[in-house]
Amino acid sequence: MGFRKKSKSPPVLSHEFVIQNHADMVSCVAMIVLLGLMFEVTAKFAIMFITVQYNVTQNAEDKPESVNYYKYGPKDIATVFFYLLIAIILHALIQEYILDKINRRLHLSKTKHSKFNESGQLATFYLCSFVWGCSILTNEEFVTNPTFLWEGYPHIHMAFQVKFFYICQIAYWFHALPELYFQKVRKEDIPRQLYYICLYIFHITGAYVLNLHRLGLVLLVPHYLVELLFHASRLFYFSDENKQKGFTLWALLFVITRLLTLTVSVLTFGFGLSRTDNQGFSLAEGNFNVLTVRMTCLSAICLTQAWMMWKFINFQLKKWREQSQIQAIKKKAVSPKSRPSKKDSRGESCLKVIWHVERFHDPRNPK
């Protein structure tokens, strides 16, 4: 993929040329943005791409120093675009220097090769996001007190780590769309990957825009843990098909996480936000606490969880059918050897009788 030297270079600006050199092209664009910091005329535009915008300084009651918070705005699109470029570069580096080297040792088929690359990239992302999300949650008060999920809404102010986390999350999932082309994903795999990519973009962007970043963090961290376990188990399975214990643990945590997501969502939208004093709809204040928005958000989460459970049940049923078929084939292969048929037993008895008769009439027999 990116940064790979080829003996024969395809025609310039052809599909193969873009696919082979997309990481180098993206690196050039990112370097142009960084070079913009060197000149005073372009510095203010370059900063808009690199650093998070809309900082607000507030004086905290329990702290002598002022605290910097951040809001969201249109300039965040430029920041998301820049870190989308960074995500493409990191994707190519992981593919080139880690996954491709492992693939050469495993000698996987084309189907397993594409799935191994997908799981390798996602496992890396889920691991980093889970660790990052846990570090943010440990510093926030709403982890120990669930009422902080809705008290004081709208939560228009975010800490730097929270806003940067959401910027990187949105950038990563938007970068996954062109990666379908860059990685030459098979046509039959594109719809499946498009489904979950679009769902991530929809839910994470919705939590960011609707000032529900606290709820989004609480729901994302356990979800990323479950997804990390699944893709890590799949990587171990591709290296050795006997290693399937991770899928059992994943199945248990998957169901628990779905129940946790539904419980927290119903608690927040159905009871918490509906009983707060600040009810109303205002784009200027970032307040979306009206019945229509609450029910739309809750319905979207419930439908997504139902769809995920449906896919999970179908996956488990398919897996059980395959295992039962394999066991049935093994039993059929073992049964003829372990249990002789009636014809074989009759034939053996007849041979024994003939042998005894011939031996009885043999003149050389002393009896």
Write out key terms for the chains shown.
two-stranded antiparallel sheet; 2 domains; 367 residues; 70% helix; 4% strand; disordered C terminus; mainly alpha
Explain how this protein is built:
The chain has 10 helices and 4 strands; from the N terminus they run ααββααααααββαα. The chain has 367 residues and is mainly alpha-helical. The chain has 2 domains: 270 residues, no CATH class; 34 residues. The chain has a two-stranded antiparallel ribbon. Helix 3 packs across helix 4.
Structure summary, number of beta strands = 4
Mean pLDDT: 87
Shape: globular
Helix content: over 70%
Across the major sheet, the strand order is: 1-2
Radius of gyration: 30 Å
Summarize the structure.
The chain is mainly alpha-helical and 367 residues long. The chain has helices at residues 15-35, 40-50, 76-106, 110-138, 160-182, 190-209, 213-239, 245-272, 291-338, 342-361, and strands at residues 55-59, 66-70, 280-282, 287-289. It has two domains: 52-321, no CATH class; 328-361.
SSE topology:
Layout: H1 15-35, H2 40-50, E1 55-59, E2 66-70, H3 76-106, H4 110-138, H5 160-182, H6 190-209, H7 213-239, H8 245-272, E3 280-282, E4 287-289, H9 291-338, H10 342-361
Antiparallel strand pairs: 1-2, 3-4
Helix pairs in contact: 1-3, 3-4, 3-5, 4-5, 4-7, 5-6, 6-7, 7-8, 8-9
